[in-house]
Amino acid sequence: MQSVPVPTAHLFPVLDQHLITLLRSLQPADWNRPTLARQWTVKDIAAHLLDGNIRVISIYRDRHFGEAPPEINGYDDLVAFLNELNGVWVKALKRMSPALLTDLLAHTGAAYAEQLQRLDPWEKALFAVAWAGEEVSFNWFHIAREYTEKFHHQLQLREAVGQTEVLMTPELFYPFINTLMRGLPYAYRNTEAPAGTIVQVNITGEAGGSWHLIRNGQQWMLQEGVAGNAAAVVSISPATAWKLFTKGLTAHEAEQQTSISGDTALGKAALSMIAVMA
Description:
Blueprint: H1 12-25, H2 42-62, H3 75-92, H4 98-117, H5 139-161, H6 170-180, H7 184-187, E1 198-203, E2 209-216, E3 219-224, E4 232-236, H8 238-245, H9 251-255, E5 259-262, H10 264-268
Parallel strand pairs: 1-4
Antiparallel strand pairs: 1-2, 2-3, 4-5
Helix pairs in contact: 1-4, 1-5, 2-3, 2-4, 2-5, 5-6
């Protein structure tokens, strides 16, 4: 299923318009509200989104990659480097006003989307989708990963101010969760099962969908849709799923809000999936 693309490039302008409308409606106190992103406030997440815009424009338009990373010897090294970059940027932008931050997000959003829309979906991406276990990815998957970043960070903002509904639609939420599901085979990489074993994962509601993993030799293969004879069936609400897979909930917390039938241990492995890097 990994070769079946998730189209997202056309959704960035829609997502950005929702973001700018939200930010321009906030009261001064809203910018300091805590969020699910650990120590980051609403303003900090908005600053992080601006950083993402600027990085993409600089890299793809100007071929400027900025600070070179230290030696990266694995996933943990990469996460540490990204966390440091993110933290330095967010700290610096504390001196920027919310109004100026919003203006810059509006100005850079269109240029950001334009650069991603110019990429050939089937060319190799500059950056692999590491949370799916890939060392080389196609551009379509990289673009979809960028969409999940913008989507879940905007949801974090909206969760903090109680305005999530506008994003929880089939048009916007389904491409997000469909992209995240591409990380399931990697999440199950150390889970053993007999050949032919099936694990069904359902994201409930109108904006959700169904996916299943099939054990094929030494690998788990992902397919979209409902499968019969599943050894385990995992059903998660959209509100729980997006938080779980982006570190907003622990697996233990999410388990209390999740239905697992059949082989419970096999099903619980799905709750270990993390579809963000930092």
